[in-house]
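Lab notebook, bench 4. The sequencing result for the construct came back, and we need a structural model before the next group meeting so we can plan mutations. Quick request posted to the team channel:

Model the 3D structure of this chain.
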Amino acid sequence: MVRRPGKGYRYGRWRGGPDPLAPPYDLGSAVDEIGDSVLGGSGVREALRELLRRGMDGRRGLDELRRSVRERLRQARNAGRMDGTLQEVRELLDRAVEAERRELFPDPDDMARLKEAELDALPEDTAGAVRALKEYDWRSDEARQAYEQIQDLLRREVLDSSFASMKQALENASAGDMQAVKDMVADLSQLIDAHNRGEDTDERFRDFMDKHGQFFPEDPQSVEELIDQLARRAAAQERMMAGLSPEQRAELSDLMAQTMQDMGLASEMAHLQDALRQARPDLPWGQRGQVPDGEQSLGMGDATSAVAELADLEALSNQLSQGYAGASLADVDEELLERALGRPAVDDLGALRQLERELERQGYLNRSDGKLELSPKAVRRLGATALRRVFAELDATGRGEHDVADAGAAGELTGGSREWRFGDEQPLDVVRTVRNAVLRTAHEPRADDDRAVHIAVEDFEVVETERRTGAAVALLVDLSYSMALRGTWGAAKSTAMALHSLVTTRFPQDAIQIIGFSSTAQVLRPETLAELSVDTLQGTNLQHGLMLARRFLARHRDAEPVVLVVTDGEPTAHLEDDGTPFFCWPPMPETIARTVAEVERVARSGAVMNVFALDPEPGLVHFVHDITQRAGGRVFTPDSERLGEYVVADYLRTRRGRRAR
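Done. Here's the predicted structure in token form:
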């Protein structure tokens, strides 16, 4: 909507940037997929990279785009051999010499014998033979024509290897056409020199294109675009030459030098090559890369184009791999991608870029000092997802075990109701009770003056209330490297996120602390836990973890203390008296003794301590049975896939059981 002075308002399509009324980009499934990877043990950066590789919502990911590029690369490798110009020159040279010999053979004159001797003495290499015949006085018209074809071919191929499509433009070229090429090369060198000096070349570029635009069918729109096209082709020409055998390279270099000299362009082309190197030093100048190797012979210009395409496809494949330090989707060259795979591929890349931007813009990812982190908003969603999956595994009858349905002094309305059962003391839900009676008797015949509602026993519903009491939950999670080796770390991380989400959302009166332990122990925030990987240091320091748990429980003396331990190994580390960690395998008696002493301190605080042992190794099973007997707890040995179900169900059961005392 635009207001026009004196004319009111005009309505039309919004043109001031992104539509402010457009629905927000739907990131739900993307965040959930990242969450799946994070809960499976991956870091956030790895999870995002994996999502971008797979793609989503019908859009191709980086992996599929790269596979398509690799297929194009395979096809480009089969484009043909690069010695086509040499082969064609040799064939024309053989034709010229053979035609000349046929013309000389019937002539009895001594001059004819001298010319035959001159032909016999020609150098073995093609370039040397072409040079030696430069001043030769041909007797045969056919031979002269074949030699002139060599000169014309070399002029066109040499220029075509530097300037795309020049071969066709110079077919049957006149002296005036060749002079136009020389003028273009001179003006081009001056333009690039000015650009390299940092001068403003916009107007000079426009004048250059007005004068010489016919030599550049790609129609560059700026001096930078022109230089990019020429520099890439010049670098490809060097790679093409590097891909030849030493003998082929020497012969072709000699032929090129002769041709440039004959055209009077040797110094100008050398200067142009140096200027392009200076303008684009980042290109792979002189490096040997992939070269085509098919059955068809390619001329210099076509071979240079094929090598340039291979170089572009190699660069594009590397960009799509994102496998180098500091990789970003912004690195992917859209122009190369469109040239290789078409516009739909660019649209797919654009969708991936938008997804990455929106994850940050909508507050799911934070980038700080180059590090990508999950925001609290994303962590909450991850926890809810993990909890939802846990509850999906629990039996329906077990989902509500944490609620006590009576109306005690601490009773709270749940917002729901249920049918009355004998012995219930909850308040009646009057509205639902009357509604049930009305619905039940709606089709029963009654007298006109009978407006009473007849309530039966089955109509009664009572208001559901629950009595909640606070609990302090310390969840100790083993971070030792063996958790990754056994494939249980992802399940442990997911379980911790699920339990944290359950406590903070469903039982806000409870307190929870997640403690990770390996060689030492540390308190973990949910955001830290989502990013966390297992510790590569050796040691399972349960003693230190229990010390932190006791400190946490001591801050919540009015709450019911609950300690849950997830581990896959018996203690192999403890803290010395000076606080330094000590590790030994097999466990030393001192490590076991210090850990058991800490277990007994936890037990004296009144906490329930249950252990979830993820490895059936006899030493671990014996140890955890011993400590849970001391602390009055229980031992569970679940599969890692069901760890979350066990931990959450045990928390709910323990919480309910403690309230019943």
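Residues 395-411 have pLDDT under 50 and may be disordered.
Will bring this to the meeting.
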